[in-house]
Amino acid sequence: MKFSEQWLREWVSPRLDTQAMADQATMAGLEVDAIEPVAKAFTGVVVAEILTREPHPNADKLSVCTVDDGSPAPVQVVCGAPNVAAGQKVPFARVGGMLPGDFKIKKAKLRGVESNGMICAESELGLAEEASPGIMVLPATSSVGEDFRRYMALDDNAIDIDLTPNRGDCLSLKGLARELGALNRLAVETPDTSPVPVGHDTVLPVDIASPEHCPRYVGRVIHGVNVNVETPLWMTERLRRSGIRAIDPVVDVTNYVMVELGQPLHAFDRDNLDGGIVVRKAQEGERLTLLDGQEISLRPETLLIADHQKPLAVAGVMGGEGSGVSASTRTIFLESAFFTPLAIAGQARSYGLHTEASHRFERGVDPQLTATAIERASALLLAICGGEAGPLTEVVSDVHCPDTRRITLRARRLEKVLGKTLDAGDVEDILARLGFDVAATADGWDVTAPSWRFDAAIEEDLIEEVARIHGYNNLPVRRPAMRLALRPDNEAGVSQAQLRRQMVARGYQEAITYSFVAPELQQAMLPNAVAPALANPISSDLSVMRASLLPGLVRAVDYNLKRQQSRVRLFETGLVFNGHLDNLSQTPMLGALACGLRYPEGWSSAAKPLDFYDVKGDLESLFALGGSPQDWRMQSGKHPSLHPGQCAQIFYRGKHAGWLGTLHPEVSRQVGLKTEAVGFEVSLEALSEGRVPAFRPLSRYPEVRRDLAFRVADGVPVQSLLDTARENAGDCLREIRLFDVYAGQGVAQGYKSVALGLTWQHPSRTLNDDEINQLVDSIVEQIKREFNAELRG
């Protein structure tokens, strides 16, 4: 918000210079963005009166004027402005004066006629951004010879404050003055807002069809206004210094009251209204031409101000062109309403607009301010434009008006948070000056928030108010209490950093993909997945939450392959989402996908593509980090996105933990992947578990190894053979290893040969052959019984 410092100081004027006052406001949460002079530097300019005006003898567009600038004798000036006339009071730059841009005024001859000075326009004095076609004309009451800077009070600053969205109450001089008054313990002077005399009984009926969006509406008919009068210079100057351009007296008054009190208002030409006022939602197919000339198609969710035949304005945003005030207007209908922030939020932006009114209504306007603001505007309009005011028409829906918020502030809680004990009187004075109603209790205070403070709802809000007005720099600086006792750590766990380092060591690169995927990609890979769809997605191909890491990795691999990366190995950690919003599970997973050559291209290795077992080995290296690889199991399974013959389900301690497999060829075709890719996805929680390593003395006695080769059916899992052998190998078994799988000549069709190497070692003695043979016989017998296996010679 931009405003004039002098205007603010009429409300409250602390004994601080401009910078100190800005610093104080910034420390209180009202950040000052800029402080700029309201006018550029110039000297030698006074108020003057044009006594005579004659045409220039040698130029059609120039005039020769006699000017009284307060000097002993009038001076002659040549002027080229089309609106110059005798009897005008004007700003006049004397010879020797300096205008903005280091332009020095000198005596000159223009087409042979001497000119001693310069009659100035607003732009030449730096009071307007654009060059104006004529000179600046001052009120007839201006004093000739008075210094123009002093007359216009140009030794002023325009202060621009950047407010956070929760402080809509400070989007006015009234709100800012209230803050400065509280900070400096000063009384705030307010303008007269008493009701104006009622001169007629004409009223306009008002119907609120959407009371939940417009709980309060106030209107007034004013007859006999003259909209062709000039807006007073003091008002246009205050508006200019607030960044608002003067238009006509009616619009200027509504803008002035908005800046002064914070309540946006709008004026309609009464003769252009059919019937009464209706506040309603837009109907399908309705269109409206706005005051800026833009024609818009209204959407059903847009709140409108309408009459009984047509829409008049987008509520809280901008009025329509057809019902606006024009030069022929003689009767106006002045409106002041409270629209709920949610009813206005986003409406202006949806039509490509941003107005001062929408900026305020979106943040919240005081619902109790409507009648006060319309009385203030009525008084200004009657004083400037004349006319007679009618009675107020007020429609209120108490059910939909914001509730009064009562908050309990505990003295002990305030002291604990601030780290300082404040006098109860100081606390009450701070809150009272901010407009809160305070009642002392045994434990603290019962506080009622004022109607303009939408952001004050809980105890912490009141503590913040007390802290910022008391001054953050007045609060003690204390180091936070620190508990230095060591917390127990899970030494058995495997950190995500360890898992990442292991994947990098295996040749993978970490990827970070979106948590959202394209619905068709997820449908192709996980047809049975149930995941939430986004209400407002970034784009159509990122519109559902991922139910697996693999879709995102598939897209990342494809992206790299299309950019000449023939060997790609990616992994990712992140959440996957399953279920509906009301019953959503979020599971941390680690996923990987690899394709291309087994090893980087080089002279020492053959150029062979990686396969299922390469990626399986990478996964098993993660299992080994936990120190209990035997707790993990893999068995063949079926997954919609994995090849049916190269797919394994992963179990950890008997519970499902993930999948491993080669991407299904049909899925690869649908997603556009032109090479075979192998990947896995496994629970991060399971991977993070482990055991603490424990020392076991090394045995000094020799190992004994036996190799056993079994002929079994192709469908028998090797893991089952290993489990059975381990269960029957006794306590001295040190290692069991699969070292060969063979199928072909010498092995019947439908069978395979599986060779296991078993190693025994006793910690305190040498094992003899009888013991080993007994264990081997037990293993062979059990495997034959369970799997119908045959021991090969």
Automatic annotation (TrEMBL):
Which ranges carry the B5 domain?
402-477
Q: Which UniProt keywords apply?
A: Aminoacyl-tRNA synthetase, ATP-binding, Cytoplasm, Ligase, Magnesium, Metal-binding, Nucleotide-binding, Protein biosynthesis, RNA-binding, tRNA-binding
Q: What is its EC number?
A: 6.1.1.20
Please list the reactions this protein catalyses. Answer: tRNA(Phe) + L-phenylalanine + ATP = L-phenylalanyl-tRNA(Phe) + AMP + diphosphate + H(+)
The cofactor required is: Mg(2+)
GO molecular-function term, one example from the UniProt record: ligase activity
Identify the Pfam families for this entry: B3_4, B5, FDX-ACB, tRNA_bind, tRNA_synthFbeta
**Binding site residues for Mg(2+):** 455, 461, 464-465
Mainly resides where? Answer: cytoplasm
Question: Any idea where this protein resides?
Answer: Cytoplasm
For the protein in the UniProt heading, the enzyme class is: ligase
Q: Which InterPro entries match?
A: aa-tRNA-synth_II/BPL/LPL, B3/B4_tRNA-bd, DNA-bd_dom_put_sf, Fdx_antiC-bd, Fdx_antiC-bd_sf, NA-bd_OB-fold, Phe-tRNA-ligase_IIc_bsu, Phe-tRNA-ligase_IIc_bsu_bact
**Entry's cofactor comment:** Binds 2 magnesium ions per tetramer.
Instruction: Give every FDX-ACB domain span.
Output: 699-792
The record places domain TRNA-binding at 39-149
Q: Which family does it belong to?
A: Belongs to the phenylalanyl-tRNA synthetase beta subunit family. Type 1 subfamily.
What is its quaternary makeup? Answer: Tetramer of two alpha and two beta subunits.
Name the record gives this protein: Phenylalanine--tRNA ligase beta subunit
Gene behind this chain? pheT
